[in-house]
Design a protein that fits this description.
Layout lengths: L14 H5 L12 H5 L4 H5 L18 E6 L8 H9 L28 E5 L9 E5 L8 H5 L5 E3 L5 E3 L9 H5 L6 E2 L9 E2 L5 H5 L5 H5 L5 E5 H14 L19 E4 L19 H29 L9 H7 L5 H13 L4 H9 L5 H6 L4 H23 L15 H4 L5 H4 L2 H11 L6 H25 L8 H4 L7 H27 L3 H31 L17 H27 L6 H35 L9 H26 L3 H25 L8 H5 L4 H23 L16
Parallel strand pairs: 1-9
Antiparallel strand pairs: 1-8, 2-3, 4-5, 6-7
Helix pairs in contact: 10-22, 15-28, 18-19, 18-22, 18-23, 19-21, 19-28, 21-22, 22-23, 23-24, 23-26, 24-25, 24-26, 25-26
């Protein structure tokens, strides 16, 4: 056994500097981002820090490590007992001398930092093989790379440490870890934390070895300097070529780990992940993060040029402005409604305000309109779902989720965040078409698109709040700690900023409803600037959502995983937005026709065909990218597998089919076909995001499909949040000038 340290280990004087963030150049104050006032441009776009640049940081050269020789392990579980005692963990459900635990495959939990599993020996069935599992303490940890707030650090001793005081419960580290190690306390409502092996760092600082190495009676665990352990492992393989597999697990996997393994059988037979890259996982996201600056600067220049070229005072579509001005005021019914409403507004604030809320009706009349079937169904859903959400905050995530250490993310993120954000790109896409490229004919549905996007992002945040382990700390990545090496940090900043931008974009409608003309004038002046800022922000975070999965090459099925997955996400969000605008406008004209004016009613069929044409083009472009992705990975053989068939269902059934429907509907001028295709495409987007975030993730784990089927409280809670979303959306459409123009603001058409 390698010698123990004889004196306490001193941290290098430059440790703080080694762990500090990089000092990449911030953007020039004259650059576009500064012009539009986006906060934190330097932070967001600076070069990745220490943990992000593996070619500059290759691990601490004198760090400690451990070598586990699986041929020597006898399954006594002494290491488990020692770890439990050293870390003051609760007693196990079964005593450490109870061999019945070997009947199932275990993983580390918040109550057990290390576990030993038993496997059948193909060489000699009378001599089983035992595998010790714990945190491998990667040289370039994926948990550190993924954390948007620097809750993880890599110490000079070799240990990867977690700080619960910084954690806000996103559990991205659990998704990113290629070894499924971080364990989460789903049963704690107020102080849940990630727990894992610490490599006995306090003992190392005292000059001692780890508790498991000290307790091992069979000499299966060797403690020492990592470089020395590699020499020992290589010597054992060279001396006993028939005893060991010619591979030191952890020498190169994901850039190398401080915990190393030797085995007498192939590692895949012992459930070691063997499909991992040799490069650190940060290498996959580093390219994307480096490209962010190019997108920002190139996009800023392009959008400024487009702004000056495509924002003339006259209408791009000849005659549209004249026609709109002739039709101003809408139907006689709408004009009468708003005239009565204006007259009813007196100096009595209470009367005026109640009139705004209940649309000028009497209390009994307003109560009667609250009794249609949909509201009754919504009341039933909320009566069940809201108590479930309350239970989540009172008793922990386990009450309303199927999540586990292997499956940290469920429907709240798969549906509400990863599925909801692309469908909320409506404001970004329509604002680009209207303000940047000058398609002024889309004005009647512009506010509807912006409102759809704003509420979509708002409720994506609400789904996230329900899912976060510590939702009250959601602001931590923006204020407390900057994990600039994390793609999630980029997403957090951009979504938060873009939500603000979208609120400002929609604020003229709110201010028109409140009859605040002076403030509205200022809001209108900000709209174009906010729009251009929103285009940049949305472009980056739509792609960043896909880039989050660059860290899971061994977990996500190869047909869905690609180095270009961020391009897939961005491209699909564009056609998803166009399809969603068609869906919400179709539902509006169907159920809220009395809130629309003549301009909206008469222009909608033509606009629907135009949106369908754009959606068809976007879907065919996306289809080409998906084919390129399969070809790039040379995964054609995987198409003839069960997952391959499911992949073809998604691509052919929910991308190619609606794209052809869009094409046919536009060619035949069939608005009904285009609308059906839009609904179809929206379902396809949701299916894709659920595939990436749930169904095709962890596909190699045993009993995978049993784990991804959620218990009934989870979809019920999701349904209740979606119901609230619909109710608020309808409430706004019924009151604010979204589907119609307010005649009191004549200049609103050109804002």
């Amino acid at each position: 056994m390698a010698s123990e340290p004889k004196k306490p280990i001193e941290e290098p004087a430059d440790q703080a500097g080694a762990q500090a963030d990089g000092t990449g150049k911030g953007i020039n104050r004259r650059d576009f981002l500064g012009t539009v006032g986006v906060i934190g441009g330097t932070v967001l776009l600076g070069k990745p820090g220490r943990a992000s640049a593996s070619e500059e940081f290759e691990g601490y050269p004198n760090s400690f490590g451990l070598l586990t020789d699986l041929t020597a392990c006898v399954g006594c579980r002494s290491c488990e007992k020692a770890c439990n005692e050293a870390n003051k963990l609760p007693a196990p459900d079964k005593p450490f001398d109870d061999s019945s635990v070997f009947t199932e495959k275990r993983m580390p939990t918040q109550k057990a930092y290390t576990v030993v599993n038993r496997y059948e020996n193909p060489k000699d069935k009378s001599k089983p093989i035992f595998r010790k599992i714990q945190c491998n303490h990667c040289k370039e940890p994926a948990c550190l790379t993924s954390c948007p707030i620097h809750a993880y650090t890599k110490t000079p001793e070799g240990a990867v440490m977690y700080n619960p005081d910084l954690c806000f419960g996103c559990r991205y580290c659990m998704t990113a870890c290629p070894f499924y190690i971080p364990a989460y306390d789903y049963w704690s409502a107020f102080e849940p934390r990630i727990q894992k092996c610490t490599m006995c760092l306090p003992r190392l600082k005292e000059g001692k070895m780890t508790a498991c190495a000290e307790a091992c009676p069979a000499g299966a665990i060797t403690f020492g300097k990592r470089e020395e352990l590699l020499k020992i492992a290589r010597e054992r393989i060279d001396r006993n070529p028939g005893k060991y597999v010619n591979h030191i697990y952890g020498e190169y996997e994901v850039g190398g780990t401080n915990w190393l393994y030797l085995s007498g059988v192939p590692f895949e037979q012992l459930d070691f992940p063997t499909n991992l890259p040799k490069k650190p996982l940060i290498e996959a996201t580093k390219g994307f993060l480096s490209a962010v600056s190019l997108v920002l600067y190139g996009g800023a220049g392009h959008f400024w040029a487009s702004f000056w070229a495509h924002f003339p005072t006259e209408e791009k579509d000849e005659g549209v402005g004249d026609k709109r001005r002739k039709k101003r005021g809408g139907s006689e019914k709408m004009s009468t409604h708003w005239a009565v409403k204006s007259e009813a507004r007196t100096n009595n604030f209470r009367v005026w305000f109640m009139g705004q809320l209940i649309m000028g009706m009497t209390g009994p009349d307003y109560f009667r309109i609250l009794l249609p079937p949909f509201n009754n169904v919504a009341a039933i859903i909320l009566s069940v779902g809201l108590p479930l959400i309350a239970m989540r905050f009172l008793f922990g995530l386990y009450t309303v989720t199927h999540a586990s250490n292997e499956y940290p993310w469920g429907l709240y993120l798969g549906w509400g965040l990863f599925g909801g954000v692309p469908l909320s790109a409506t404001g970004f896409v329509m604002a680009t078409a209207y303000y940047i490229f000058g398609y002024r004919r889309y004005h009647p549905i512009l506010r509807l698109a912006v409102l759809t996007g704003f509420l979509g992002y708002l409720f994506a945040v609400i789904y996230l709040l329900v899912d976060l382990g510590r939702p009250w700390r959601i602001y931590y990545p923006m204020i407390i700690g900057f994990g600039t090496q994390s793609v999630l940090f980029l997403v957090a900043w951009h979504v938060a900023t873009y939500l603000t931008v979208q609120f400002i974009e929609f604020s003229p409608a709110i201010l028109e409803w409140l009859k605040s003309q002076r403030v509205r004038r200022w809001a209108v002046m900000l709209t174009i600037g906010m729009t251009i800022a929103g285009i940049i922000l949305s472009t980056l975070h739509q792609s960043a959502l896909g880039a989050m999965y660059l860290l899971v090459p061994g977990k996500l099925h190869p047909l869905w995983y690609s180095p270009y997955i961020w391009i897939f996400f961005l491209c699909s969000s564009i056609y998803a937005a166009l399809a969603m605008v068609i869906v919400v406008s179709s539902l509006s004209i169907r159920f809220l026709k009395n809130r629309t004016d003549r301009t909206f009613q008469e222009s909608l069929p033509r606009l629907t065909l135009g949106l369908g044409q754009g959606a068809a083009v976007g879907m065919f472009v996306y289809l080409v990218f998906k084919i390129i992705g399969v070809a790039h990975g040379n995964n054609w053989n995987l198409l003839n597998t069960p997952y391959g068939y499911w992949f073809l269902v998604e691509v052919i059934g929910f991308v190619m089919a609606p794209a052809l429907m869009f094409t046919y509907g536009v060619k035949k001028r069939s608005v009904g076909v285009v609308r059906f295709a839009a609904f179809y495409a929206v379902v396809g987007i949701i299916l894709n995001r659920l595939n990436v975030s749930i169904i095709a993730l962890n596909w190699q784990l045993p009993h995978h499909f049993q784990h991804i089927i959620p218990p009934w409280p989870e979809p019920m809670a999701v349904l209740s949040i979606a119901t609230i979303h619909i109710l608020i959306f309808r409430w706004i459409l019924n009151r604010m000038p979204v589907l119609h123009a307010d005649p009191e603001y004549a200049e609103a058409e050109n804002h």
